[in-house]
Amino acid sequence: MKQEYSYEIDNPILSSQTKQDLWETGFGLQKVDGLKPSLYMVELAKEQIVGKLSYEQVYQQITKYHEEIDDSTKEADIVSLRIVELLSRSGFKFAPVTLKAIHKDLFLGLLPQGVPLGEYRPYNLRKDEPILGGDSVIYDDYRTIAASLAYDFEQESQFNYQGKTLEEMVEHLQRFISGIWQIHPFGEGNTRTVTVFMIKYLRVLGFEIDNSPFKEKARYFRDALVLDNATVAKKNSIYLTRFFETILLDKHHLLSSRQMFEEVLGIEK
């Protein structure tokens, strides 16, 4: 007789340590845009970690705080919460549409007017980067975003990880993630969106991830992505390699922004 197995709702009961790790990751990733969560949000996170509050209750209380007391940390608070929610779920689809879904989930109600939510930007970007001495990465032209992502995802889906050493896998993943970031498909929030996608994808591939660099070195990570995608004269991949080796190969690189600026520009940060 055929044995039947039923599906279960994907609503994992996470340990307090896992929840704390996710909250610290969510808070840390706000540093890529120079943001910092409110002290009240940190206290609410502690309540959620020990099981006293649900995500919905945290959202209700922090929204009331923003409406009645101080909304200057609204983006950092809300996006941190949404990162924790997304990383608490195991569902994942390897496709560009997932990037759109993550962007929409993270930034609903938070983007400046004119910045599309969960859709590719309809304009070109530049951003003065201190680590490049004020130059900008050359991001994808907005007209080729969809085609570029489709190509990168197709190439990744065809890559055979079998028979590769762990070091070869990590080197390949570094190129893939850096390439997606260089496309910069959205008007705002690209690094946080790509990072959430990356963490979920690495889990699907079976990697054990050291999340501590995301908590403590998120700005280093963004600057390393900038250097990896700079023009030929300024391109330098060593800093991004160190980051990936730290989170995936258990290597203990310093990941110092000060050292990066001194080595790249000859100035102290």
Describe the structure.
The chain is mostly helical. It has two domains: 16-89, no CATH class; 92-269, Fido-like domain (Fic-like fold, Orthogonal Bundle). 56% of the residues lie in helices and 0% in strands. It is built from twelve helices and no strands. The chain has helices at residues 16-29, 39-49, 55-68, 74-88, 96-107, 145-158, 166-183, 190-205, 212-216, 218-228, 238-248, 257-265. It is globular.
Output the CATH homologous superfamily of the largest domain. Answer: Fido-like domain
CATH architecture of the largest domain: Orthogonal Bundle
> In terms of structural class, how would the helical and strand content be classed?
mainly alpha
Order of helix and strand elements from N to C terminus = HHHHHHHHHHHH
Count of helical stretches: 12
What is the averaged pLDDT score?
A: 94
CATH class of the largest domain: Mainly Alpha
Radius of gyration: 19 Å
CATH topology of the largest domain: Fic-like fold
Distance between the termini: 69 Å
Low-confidence parts: 5-10
Summarize the biggest pleated sheet. Answer: none
Proportion of residues in β-strands: under 5%
> What best-fitting shape do the alpha-carbon axes yield?
globular
How many β-strands, per DSSP? 0
Outline the fold blueprint.
Elements: H1 16-29, H2 39-49, H3 55-68, H4 74-88, H5 96-107, H6 145-158, H7 166-183, H8 190-205, H9 212-216, H10 218-228, H11 238-248, H12 257-265
Helix pairs in contact: 1-2, 1-4, 2-3, 3-4, 4-5, 5-8, 6-7, 7-11, 10-11
Outline of the structure:
By secondary structure, the protein is mostly helical. The chain has 12 helices and no strands.
